[in-house]
Amino acid sequence: MADGMLPLIERGLDVEVRAAATVWNGWARRVPVDVGILEMKRLIIAFAFLSMAGAAAGQRPAPPPACSAPEYRQLDFWVGEWDAEFTNPDGSIGRGENRITRHEYGDCVIAEYFRQPGGNPGGGDFLGTSYSIYDRPTRSWRQMWVDNQGSMFDLRGGPVSGQPHSFELVNVEPRGNPPRSMRMIWADVTSNSFVWRWQAQQPDGAWSDQWVIRYRRRGAAAAAP
Protein backbone atom coordinates (compact mmCIF):
# COMPACT_ATOMS: atom_id res chain seq x y z
CA MET A 1 0.00 0.00 0.00
CA ALA A 2 2.86 2.37 0.91
CA ASP A 3 4.64 1.70 -2.45
CA GLY A 4 1.45 2.59 -4.33
CA MET A 5 1.41 5.97 -2.66
CA LEU A 6 5.01 6.79 -3.55
CA PRO A 7 4.19 8.60 -6.86
CA LEU A 8 1.85 10.90 -4.92
CA ILE A 9 4.46 11.58 -2.28
CA GLU A 10 7.13 12.20 -4.92
CA ARG A 11 5.15 15.15 -6.33
CA GLY A 12 5.64 16.99 -3.07
CA LEU A 13 9.30 16.19 -2.66
CA ASP A 14 12.31 17.99 -4.01
CA VAL A 15 14.52 15.26 -5.44
CA GLU A 16 17.45 17.62 -5.12
CA VAL A 17 17.17 17.67 -1.35
CA ARG A 18 20.11 15.79 0.15
CA ALA A 19 18.82 15.86 3.74
CA ALA A 20 15.32 16.12 5.23
CA ALA A 21 13.75 16.58 8.62
CA THR A 22 11.24 14.17 10.09
CA VAL A 23 9.58 13.71 13.45
CA TRP A 24 9.79 10.55 15.47
CA ASN A 25 8.59 10.10 19.10
CA GLY A 26 8.24 13.84 19.46
CA TRP A 27 11.88 14.64 18.51
CA ALA A 28 13.17 16.33 15.36
CA ARG A 29 16.04 14.48 13.73
CA ARG A 30 17.99 14.85 10.53
CA VAL A 31 17.77 12.08 7.95
CA PRO A 32 21.27 11.27 6.73
CA VAL A 33 22.06 11.58 3.05
CA ASP A 34 23.04 7.93 2.73
CA VAL A 35 19.64 6.73 3.91
CA GLY A 36 18.33 7.42 0.44
CA ILE A 37 15.31 9.25 -0.86
CA LEU A 38 13.19 6.07 -0.99
CA GLU A 39 13.78 5.22 2.66
CA MET A 40 13.00 8.81 3.63
CA LYS A 41 9.68 8.54 1.77
CA ARG A 42 8.84 5.34 3.60
CA LEU A 43 9.44 7.06 6.93
CA ILE A 44 7.19 9.96 5.90
CA ILE A 45 4.41 7.57 4.86
CA ALA A 46 4.67 5.61 8.11
CA PHE A 47 4.50 8.82 10.11
CA ALA A 48 1.46 9.97 8.09
CA PHE A 49 -0.37 6.68 8.77
CA LEU A 50 0.40 6.93 12.50
CA SER A 51 -0.93 10.48 12.57
CA MET A 52 -4.14 9.43 10.79
CA ALA A 53 -4.65 6.54 13.20
CA GLY A 54 -4.22 8.87 16.17
CA ALA A 55 -6.73 11.31 14.74
CA ALA A 56 -9.26 8.52 14.14
CA ALA A 57 -8.85 7.32 17.73
CA GLY A 58 -9.65 10.83 18.93
CA GLN A 59 -12.91 10.85 16.93
CA ARG A 60 -14.62 7.88 18.59
CA PRO A 61 -18.40 8.42 18.87
CA ALA A 62 -19.63 9.69 22.19
CA PRO A 63 -21.33 7.09 24.42
CA PRO A 64 -25.17 7.16 24.41
CA PRO A 65 -26.89 9.24 27.09
CA ALA A 66 -27.62 7.53 30.39
CA CYS A 67 -30.98 5.74 30.63
CA SER A 68 -31.56 5.85 26.86
CA ALA A 69 -32.31 2.11 26.55
CA PRO A 70 -35.96 1.30 25.73
CA GLU A 71 -36.46 -0.44 29.10
CA TYR A 72 -36.31 2.96 30.82
CA ARG A 73 -39.42 4.04 28.90
CA GLN A 74 -41.65 1.13 29.99
CA LEU A 75 -43.38 3.23 32.65
CA ASP A 76 -43.77 6.39 30.56
CA PHE A 77 -47.51 5.76 30.15
CA TRP A 78 -47.82 6.88 33.79
CA VAL A 79 -46.19 10.28 33.23
CA GLY A 80 -48.54 13.27 33.37
CA GLU A 81 -51.07 15.17 35.48
CA TRP A 82 -53.86 12.90 36.71
CA ASP A 83 -57.19 13.28 38.49
CA ALA A 84 -57.88 10.36 40.83
CA GLU A 85 -61.25 9.00 41.96
CA PHE A 86 -62.02 6.08 44.25
CA THR A 87 -64.89 4.59 46.22
CA ASN A 88 -64.56 4.66 50.00
CA PRO A 89 -65.74 1.74 52.18
CA ASP A 90 -68.88 3.70 53.06
CA GLY A 91 -69.74 4.16 49.39
CA SER A 92 -68.76 7.82 49.17
CA ILE A 93 -66.46 9.02 46.41
CA GLY A 94 -62.96 10.16 47.31
CA ARG A 95 -60.76 12.26 45.07
CA GLY A 96 -57.13 13.12 44.75
CA GLU A 97 -54.51 14.21 42.27
CA ASN A 98 -51.23 12.76 41.11
CA ARG A 99 -48.38 14.39 39.22
CA ILE A 100 -45.88 12.05 37.56
CA THR A 101 -42.65 13.37 36.04
CA ARG A 102 -39.63 11.86 34.34
CA HIS A 103 -37.30 14.80 33.57
CA GLU A 104 -36.03 15.74 37.02
CA TYR A 105 -33.16 13.23 36.87
CA GLY A 106 -32.18 13.18 33.21
CA ASP A 107 -34.91 10.80 32.00
CA CYS A 108 -33.71 8.14 34.45
CA VAL A 109 -36.28 8.40 37.24
CA ILE A 110 -40.08 8.45 37.30
CA ALA A 111 -41.14 10.69 40.21
CA GLU A 112 -44.64 10.64 41.74
CA TYR A 113 -46.37 13.31 43.86
CA PHE A 114 -49.74 12.17 45.19
CA ARG A 115 -52.16 14.35 47.16
CA GLN A 116 -55.54 13.45 48.68
CA PRO A 117 -57.20 16.52 50.24
CA GLY A 118 -58.43 15.69 53.74
CA GLY A 119 -57.13 12.15 53.47
CA ASN A 120 -54.97 12.28 56.58
CA PRO A 121 -56.39 11.58 60.06
CA GLY A 122 -57.43 14.89 61.61
CA GLY A 123 -58.43 16.42 58.29
CA GLY A 124 -55.03 17.18 56.82
CA ASP A 125 -54.02 16.17 53.31
CA PHE A 126 -52.58 12.75 52.64
CA LEU A 127 -49.29 13.22 50.78
CA GLY A 128 -47.14 10.54 49.20
CA THR A 129 -44.09 10.47 46.97
CA SER A 130 -42.36 7.69 45.09
CA TYR A 131 -39.31 7.32 42.88
CA SER A 132 -39.16 4.55 40.29
CA ILE A 133 -36.24 3.50 38.12
CA TYR A 134 -35.32 0.62 35.85
CA ASP A 135 -32.51 -1.33 37.51
CA ARG A 136 -30.35 -2.72 34.72
CA PRO A 137 -28.35 -5.25 36.84
CA THR A 138 -31.56 -7.00 37.99
CA ARG A 139 -33.54 -6.22 34.81
CA SER A 140 -36.44 -5.03 36.91
CA TRP A 141 -38.14 -1.84 38.03
CA ARG A 142 -37.61 -0.58 41.57
CA GLN A 143 -39.79 1.89 43.47
CA MET A 144 -39.44 3.57 46.84
CA TRP A 145 -42.66 5.02 48.29
CA VAL A 146 -42.90 7.26 51.37
CA ASP A 147 -45.80 9.29 52.77
CA ASN A 148 -46.82 11.58 55.60
CA GLN A 149 -48.44 8.71 57.52
CA GLY A 150 -45.05 7.12 58.12
CA SER A 151 -45.38 4.38 55.52
CA MET A 152 -42.47 3.16 53.43
CA PHE A 153 -42.59 0.54 50.69
CA ASP A 154 -39.73 -0.88 48.65
CA LEU A 155 -41.17 -2.51 45.55
CA ARG A 156 -39.84 -4.43 42.56
CA GLY A 157 -41.41 -5.59 39.32
CA GLY A 158 -42.12 -4.45 35.77
CA PRO A 159 -44.25 -5.21 32.73
CA VAL A 160 -46.23 -8.47 32.78
CA SER A 161 -47.99 -10.52 30.14
CA GLY A 162 -50.82 -13.03 30.32
CA GLN A 163 -52.42 -11.10 33.20
CA PRO A 164 -55.44 -8.77 33.36
CA HIS A 165 -52.97 -5.97 34.19
CA SER A 166 -49.93 -4.73 32.27
CA PHE A 167 -47.50 -3.56 34.96
CA GLU A 168 -46.94 -4.52 38.59
CA LEU A 169 -44.64 -3.74 41.51
CA VAL A 170 -44.50 -6.09 44.51
CA ASN A 171 -43.28 -5.14 47.98
CA VAL A 172 -39.99 -6.95 48.55
CA GLU A 173 -40.52 -7.08 52.33
CA PRO A 174 -43.88 -8.37 53.67
CA ARG A 175 -45.61 -5.89 55.97
CA GLY A 176 -48.53 -5.89 58.39
CA ASN A 177 -49.73 -8.18 61.15
CA PRO A 178 -49.49 -10.91 60.15
CA PRO A 179 -46.88 -9.94 57.52
CA ARG A 180 -48.08 -10.32 53.96
CA SER A 181 -46.94 -9.26 50.52
CA MET A 182 -48.45 -6.18 48.92
CA ARG A 183 -48.44 -5.09 45.32
CA MET A 184 -49.65 -2.32 43.03
CA ILE A 185 -50.88 -3.01 39.53
CA TRP A 186 -51.83 -0.88 36.53
CA ALA A 187 -54.77 -2.23 34.52
CA ASP A 188 -56.97 -1.04 31.63
CA VAL A 189 -54.22 1.34 30.52
CA THR A 190 -55.07 3.79 27.72
CA SER A 191 -53.43 7.04 26.71
CA ASN A 192 -55.78 8.99 29.00
CA SER A 193 -56.84 6.59 31.74
CA PHE A 194 -56.00 3.52 33.79
CA VAL A 195 -57.06 1.70 36.95
CA TRP A 196 -54.55 1.38 39.77
CA ARG A 197 -55.01 -1.29 42.44
CA TRP A 198 -53.24 -1.74 45.76
CA GLN A 199 -53.57 -5.39 46.70
CA ALA A 200 -52.68 -7.76 49.54
CA GLN A 201 -51.79 -11.41 49.10
CA GLN A 202 -53.99 -13.88 50.98
CA PRO A 203 -52.81 -17.14 52.59
CA ASP A 204 -54.03 -19.08 49.56
CA GLY A 205 -51.90 -16.91 47.26
CA ALA A 206 -54.79 -14.91 45.80
CA TRP A 207 -54.65 -11.11 45.67
CA SER A 208 -57.42 -8.95 47.14
CA ASP A 209 -58.03 -5.23 46.52
CA GLN A 210 -57.23 -2.83 49.35
CA TRP A 211 -57.54 0.42 47.40
CA VAL A 212 -58.73 0.90 43.81
CA ILE A 213 -58.14 4.28 42.14
CA ARG A 214 -59.54 5.28 38.77
CA TYR A 215 -57.24 7.70 37.00
CA ARG A 216 -58.03 10.11 34.20
CA ARG A 217 -55.50 12.39 32.58
CA ARG A 218 -56.21 15.98 33.52
CA GLY A 219 -57.94 17.81 30.68
CA ALA A 220 -58.95 14.61 28.83
CA ALA A 221 -62.61 14.25 27.93
CA ALA A 222 -64.60 11.70 29.93
CA ALA A 223 -65.38 8.45 28.15
CA ALA A 224 -68.92 8.07 26.82
CA PRO A 225 -71.15 5.81 28.97
Summarize the helices and strands and which ones pair or pack:
Elements: H1 6-11, E1 20-24, E2 27-31, H2 37-57, E3 80-87, E4 93-101, E5 110-116, E6 126-135, E7 140-147, E8 152-159, E9 165-171, E10 182-187, E11 193-201, E12 207-217
Order of helices and strands: HEEHEEEEEEEEEE
The portion of residues assigned to helices is 10-25%
- The number of distinct helices, counting runs of at least 4 residues, comes to 2
Largest sheet: 10 strands, antiparallel, barrel
The top-level CATH class of the largest domain is Mainly Beta
Mean pLDDT: 82
What is the rounded Rg?
33 Å
For this structure, the CATH topology of the largest domain is: Lipocalin
Assign an overall shape.
Answer: elongated
Account of the 3D structure:
There is one protein chain. The protein is mainly beta and 225 residues long. It has 2 domains: 3-57, no CATH class; 70-217, Calycin beta-barrel core domain (Lipocalin), CATH 2.40.128.20. The chain has helices spanning 6-11, 37-57, and strands at residues 20-24, 27-31, 80-87, 93-101, 110-116, 126-135, 140-147, 152-159, 165-171, 182-187, 193-201, 207-217. It has a 10-stranded antiparallel β-barrel. A hairpin with a 5-residue loop joins strand 3 and strand 4 (93-101). It is elongated and about 100 Å long.
Task: Describe the structure using short key phrases.
single chain, 225 residues, mainly beta, Lipocalin, 2 domains, two-stranded antiparallel sheet, 12% helix, 41% strand, elongated, disordered N terminus
